[in-house]
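From the pipeline queue, job 12 of 40. The input is one protein chain; the requested action is below.

Action: predict structure.
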Amino acid sequence: MEIIFETIIILILRYPGAGIRWLISRLWKSDKKFNEFLKEDAFINGVVSLLIIAAIVFGINKII
């Protein structure tokens, strides 16, 4: 059950994480394409997504 849950979470969070990494890399004028970030380690993309989601939730809770 845990393996299935981890796989689903990584697949769902992979795209937003790659998008965030791609946007940040564009700030430093990188020529890497979105597909290159997507093909890289899915775990890193998932962790980036989780960190951003946690920061948003924490920020909203601080405001309220």
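Job complete. The CA atoms of residues 17 and 51 lie 9 Å apart.
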